[in-house]
Amino acid sequence: MGRIGFTVRDSQDSDHPVTFLPEPERRVRHNLLISVDDHVVEAPDAFEGRIPARFGDRGPKVVTDDDGMHAWEVDGRRFPTVGMNAVAGRPVSEYGFDPVRFDHMRRGAWDIHARIADMDLNGIYASLNFPSALPGFAGQNFMRMTADQELGLACVRAWNDWIIDDWHTRYPDRIIPCQIPWLYDPEIAADEIYRNAERGFRSVSFSEAPEKLKLPSLHTGHWDPFIRACEDTGTVVCLHVGSSSQAPSTAPDAPPDTIGVLFFGYAMFAAVDWLYSLIPVRFPNLRIAMSEGGIAWVPGLIDRLDHITRYHDMYGTWVNIDMKPSEVFRRNFWFCVIDDTSCLSLRDHIGVDHIMMESDYPHVDTTWPDTQEVVRRQVEGFGPDETEKICWRNAAELFRWPVPKAVAADPESF
Questions:
Q1: What DSSP letter does each residue of 43-104 carry, written as one string?
Q2: What pLDDT digit, counting tens, does each position of 176-210 carry?
Q3: Residue 215 · residue 138 · CB < 8 Å
Q4: What angle do CA 267, 271, 272 make, to 5 degrees?
Q5: Is residue 152 in a domain?
Q6: pTM of the model
Q7: Count of domains in the chain?
Q8: Which domain holds residue 160?
Q9: Are the C-beta atoms of 29 and 123 separated by less than 8 Å?
Q10: What is the CATH number of the domain that holds 333?
């Protein structure tokens, strides 16, 4: 039996209960699954001992406000959230974007041992994790929290040290390490890619649209040293929706539902921008993963790319290039699904070798603890080879993540 649902009430704020649903039972493992989009909430001690002593106490630390709420503080600046959208295991009626205490979240959001337990329960063999509120999806907040670039870079390095040492190293078969970059200097960013590749990092979470962070755009050539380092090391560039600190929206007075509905849309805009920057043409071995973007937009974009090919000479951008835009798109980009049943019927048009699965734990979109059943429903009727590719093999090949034969043969074995 699972535990009975209970409510936590903060001693300072009894009018705002935090309810945890009954602990779910371990799910049946229909398929081996690798999730290429989950998230971590930075643990309270994530930066302890990882910021050089010369910065004193200016590095990230958790403080408690007068009202009992937790917050991060960096260089004297308060960042008033610790859990951004970490609502897994709570009723939908309490979903929100700002859990403000660590005990308002499942421990698996920020504790590696509890995370592995939640992965086991959900039937996820391996997981790639992005940051959450404190760094931002691409580490951009470490540029904004302090004017001291040396401190900002130290924060980026400390976050990467935490994710490799406290998460990956403790469970080296289960956590696919993803780093955040230093966005102020592409040469330093490139050096970090080379250094972190030697430490076992397989990917980097980069901004889908750096110009929206007031940085040089993809079309300037500014990022070439960083891109070259990613290509040289096989580091996958993961473009998570929202990594430009923006999301698609409609009218200013539209309800917030519209942002949730359109969240995937930025993936399409980002993919077109990256494609027509010609970065994938100049760096043909670069691998780009569109994280949390779904696949609903992919077939239509492929058709549109082929349509526009008829009059590329009018624009003068895609000229003297042997491959069509849609061919480069299919070669260099990978996509992930969370609940895209109807779109998977077009998997051959998209390219079945470039589709992966995600669970988005512990965020509002997560399919936890029912990811196994959600995936089973989506791939129902697929052949075993296609099912295997979408559920885990594509991810294993993209991120160079070996899966033991015994685990591949029997998902119940891990």
A1: PTTTTTTTS-GGGTT-S-EEEE-TTS-EEEEETTEEE--SSTT--TTS-GGG--S---SGGG
A2: 999 999 999 999 999 999 999 999 999 999 999 99
A3: no
A4: 120
A5: yes
A6: 0.94
A7: 1
A8: 28-413
A9: yes
A10: 3.20.20.140
